[in-house]
Input
Amino acid sequence: MTDPRLMISVSGIRGRVGFGLSPEVVARYAAAFGAWALQQGHGTAVVLGRDSRVSGPLFHQIARGALESVGADVIDLGITTTPTLQMAVEYHHAAGGLGITASHNPIEWNALKFIGHDGLFLSGPANQAMRALIGDIPYATYDKLGVTRFDGDAVSRHLDAILDLPMIDIAAIRARKFRVAYDACRGAGGIVIPHLLNLLGCDVEAIELEPDGRFPRSPEPVAANLGPLCDLAKRTRADVGFATDPDVDRLSLVDERGRAIGEDYTLALASRVVLAHRPGVVVTNLSTSQVVDDQAAEFGSTVQRAPVGEVNVAMAMRAAGAVVGGEGNGGVILPELHLGRDAPLGVALILQMLVNAGEPLSRLVGRYPRYTIIKDKLDRPSVPLDAVYAALRDAFPDASADTQDGLRLSWPGRWVHLRPSGTEPIVRIIAEADSEAAARTLVTRARELLAALTR
Output
């Protein structure tokens, strides 16, 4: 029986270290994944990497041994970023990849992320097939155990691929000599982002670069957590500030005035560079700001929405032939690089966007409609969420409803989305409107209906 303290979703398995997520759990899931990956017929190699979390070294050793125990040959990247790991799976034509990272979760959490041979996170059905092996793992005999080799070039290949993108004008970016402020929050970004910025000729002022996982603040790169970066950007007169989460798939921005502009703008502004180069469909999730729609419309492009979760967006992008996509949490996906959220890619696209725009970030953002997006959360209720969704639809009969992922109700210029989190035992309520009062009204009404059903 699955431990209820574990969060199991398309994002992998997550838990608090010592409270649900134990060495035994890591060993069983890593072995089951390795066995499943080998059964898919794409060779015997599995790429392994981790972020900087304090529990990372322990779980890394356990996972490596578990993979070898089922006959997988491990390609070990050590501390790395999630997008680097995904690209390494493709580069090595591996059977899969295993990332040890809890992304934006607090310091006491860790997780396993499972990647298929195509570099994408496992779909729902693939996750189920993998988990079915946990009760009867087919361990290898002594003569078929796997071995480990190390790949120290994965980050360099990743950055080279970004700099080779046709929409990135390296000479033009270098000529601007951008002054950049950066906060790595002691995640894996400290070993990647400053190097990329140096390659692009930037003058870098950085904080919390040591990748020891001892996060000095909440590691999620939302505006409320970026006070130190805002101060750094203002003090150093930076052109732009960047913040990444511990596994470096999410990127948040601070403007030259030292103001955090909201993680939803990362995808919207990065998309401008891609759409100017090649117009086409943009795919994002149901909880992403409509500022993405505004940017796409300027280039005659349309936006399609998918359920929350990187693999859901990536699969929708593949189906739609999208030219760019991602999520409003600061995740940018460019298919011609790889189908995964990629903060180093976002850094290069944002710098290129500033070159193309020829004006400060604050002025560019100020030219577009300003929305207020409120992101709230509460403990998951004991009642079925279907009852909550029905009550919301009854309360707002004039709204357009999307039930791909929880319930999203929308009207021209405003929307509210209620869904269970896949990474924490909570329900997320996200609303957006052209005023804070209107957005907060939607959130408050959703909370009230939820409370009424749980009394």
